[in-house]
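Priority: low. Protein: Kinase. Input follows.
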Amino acid sequence: MHYFVICEQNPLFSLKLHFFFRIPKMVLNIKRASSLDGATVNVQDVLKPFDHQVGGHTPFTSLPNGHLLKPCVERELYFYQKMPKSLKSIAPLCCSTIQGSSVSTFDDSCVNCRQHQLENVVIPESIEGSPILNKRKLSKNFIVLSDLTYRMKSPRILDLKLGTRQHGDQATVAKIACMTAKCQSTTSATLGIRLCGMKRPPSESQNQISINKYEGRQMGKMELFLALQQFFDVSENVLELVQTKLLAIRDVLNETDGVRLFGASLLIVIESEITESTPIENLVRIKVVDFANATFGGFQGDNIYEGKDEGSILGLDTLLGIVKC
Ligand SMILES: [Zn+2]
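Result:
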């Protein structure tokens, strides 16, 4: 049995609390098939705090072999379970979903997850006593996603809120007003992107840069462009890779009817520490993430939308204009 504690604010702090002070908190008990042979898996080797998060408000926890455990609302879990095939290519690989004690591993999960499936997940009722988790309805739902920073030595990470509208169809009137105002007062409405988080690690010739979502909301067009130029201050071949991947995502959205990526982000990860032996697949990774408010035709009784997601495509075009070689 391995007991894991997830804290809304700081997973590392929670782990320490549980193991050293025995304060009951949210407990996620995962027994892996690979441990059925009696081998003991040290919790510290299995679940670790994730160091590279730059955006969003849900804390991720790192699982072995390039996976992340993300607490999510039920809607996002269903989105991953039912998303159209075309969208799978632009989203991170989702290997499993966890609802309470029920784990579903997808047929198209990675080899590791097919061989070592998660099972026997138990989340005790006591976690429902946590007001933060209850408030966000995150207590029992998790998705196991691929970690875009996996095997990168020094990743620079950019989280751009995509599109001109962020609220989903289920949003309350107050939420719609708030989210619409946020789009209108930031670069979202005019450029289809807003900086939600950015980290560029320090190097011999460059200082570290770290920008959070609050600073991102204050940015006008010029400040945003300046920040993005600093982020994409990379070699021409890396920039070409970025461009190719952005164009591939744009192509998918351009050819997909009825999808609306409300509230989603474009997550861009680039390896800063490149050597001759760095595999090309470890240089640039770009995916669309955060589907809690996104929709597609026939999903969860949402409104039916026709045509392509122009707001998201506007954002990709803005970005492509900045990264053009
Ligand atoms: Zn996997």
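The radius of gyration is 20 Å. Residues 1-27, 32-45, 122-135 have pLDDT under 50 and may be disordered.
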